[in-house]
Design goal:
This protein has helices spanning 12-24, 46-51, 65-75, 89-94, 96-117, 153-172, 194-206, 228-240, 259-268, 296-302, 310-327, and strands at 3-7, 28-33, 55-59, 79-82, 122-126, 175-181, 184-185, 213-216, 222-227, 248-251, 255-258, 275-278, 290-291. By secondary structure, the chain is an alpha/beta fold. It has 2 domains: 3-185 and 226-251, NAD(P)-binding Rossmann-like Domain (Rossmann fold, 3-Layer(aba) Sandwich); 194-223 and 255-290 and 308-327, UDP-galactose 4-epimerase, domain 1 (Alpha-Beta Complex).
């Protein structure tokens, strides 16, 4: 039986990947979680864990090499999807060392564990479009060979992650592939990310939990949006459609707009008409403000293309936060 390991299994992307693999494969799945990680995103799969039905959760931490060796020894994976990370760029400005340790050194620790205990595994290393950072308009759309100009400690950590993936493929003959995923969203997206935070504010305003004021940061940043459910389908295809050791790909959606236009789309889906107020705390010292990808390399290799339109992604995200507001499962307001 095919065995797959997902690091960060209870996170935003990891939980959607788990949904996809449960529904579309017969693989045995092993999810790495930190012992204190909330399991809310994967609560629908806990009965499987309790029955031992295709899914096992294993405690692990990217900052603890011994725990990673234990995880890989237990999983003995044919496929590894490395999604665990400190994933919020703004936080990295105040926690740069933690971010670098978790993302760059953590990836190195994991690859060492895989090299020792599952050297034939096919591995996905998830870097980020943030590695490209500040790109000029004449460099658009961003191709795989665009220069790196990271604009945050998070982005720097992902440059390390990206290069480590390619290094282990070239130096040790491992089948490691790297992705630079551009902006992606959908249900369960953390409220530290701009579109999810806007959707949360709107849902809280609708329920009368906060005043009708939406706090914003940089609304001029240009993004290309994808749905997380299209992203995890791409990740599955990455490792199962003629995987090439050392390959690296840009993956992203088709709908490009500014953060301000994205906010307008969400407001149009709501009966509220809030006041928009800039909050200096939401501004980054430097912003990667032109994120438009060229994804032709990955599409040509796998045949993948986005299927879920931007407005459905935003609608589903807003519905998610409306449910959280009703359940009062998200009582903290940012």
């Amino acid at each position: 039986m095919t065995r797959a390991l997902i690091t960060g299994c209870s996170g935003f992307v990891g939980s959607h990947l788990l949904d996809y693999l449960i529904a579309n494969t017969d693989w045995d799945l092993f999810g790495m979680v930190r012992w204190r990680s909330p399991l809310t995103n994967i609560q629908q799969h806990i009965p499987r864990v309790e029955k031992g039905d295709r899914l096992r959760l294993i405690d692990g931490n990217l900052r603890d090499s011994e725990s990673l060796w234990h995880v890989v020894r237990m999983a003995r994976p044919d496929y590894v999807f490395h999604l665990a990370a400190q994933s919020f760029p703004k936080t990295s400005f105040t926690s740069p060392i933690d971010t670098l340790d978790t993302n760059a050194l953590g990836t190195c620790r994991l690859l060492e564990a895989v090299r020792e205990h599952a050297p034939k595994a096919i591995v996905h290393i998830c870097a980020s479009s943030e590695v490209f950072g500040r790109v000029s308009a004449d460099e658009l759309p961003i191709g795989e060979n665009c220069r790196f100009h990271p604009a945050s400690p998070y982005a720097i950590s992902k440059v390390g992650t990206d290069l480590l993936g390619r290094f282990y493929a070239e130096a040790y003959g491992m089948n490691v592939q790297t992705t630079r995923m551009f902006t992606h969203s959908g249900p369960r997206r953390g409220d530290v990310f701009v579109e999810s935070n806007f959707a949360k504010q709107i849902a809280f305003i609708e329920r009368g939990l906060i005043e009708p004021v939406i706090k914003v940061g940089n609304l001029k940043s240009m993004r290309t949006w994808a749905d997380v459910r299209d992203a995890v389908r791409a990740y599955h295809m990455l490792l199962t459609v003629n995987p090439i050791p050392g390959a690296y790909y840009n993956i992203g959606g088709e709908h490009s707009c500014t953060v301000g236009e994205m906010l307008e789309t969400l407001i149009e889906m709501s009966p509220i008409r809030p006041q928009i107020v800039e909050d200096p705390e939401r501004l980054r010292p430097i912003d990667a403000d032109l994120q438009i990808p060229d994804t032709s390399k990955f599409r040509a290799h796998t045949g993948w293309k986005p299927e879920i339109p931007f407005k459905r992604t935003m609608q589903d995200l807003l519905v998610y936060w409306r449910q959280q507001a009703i359940n009062k499962a998200a009582v903290t307001y940012r």
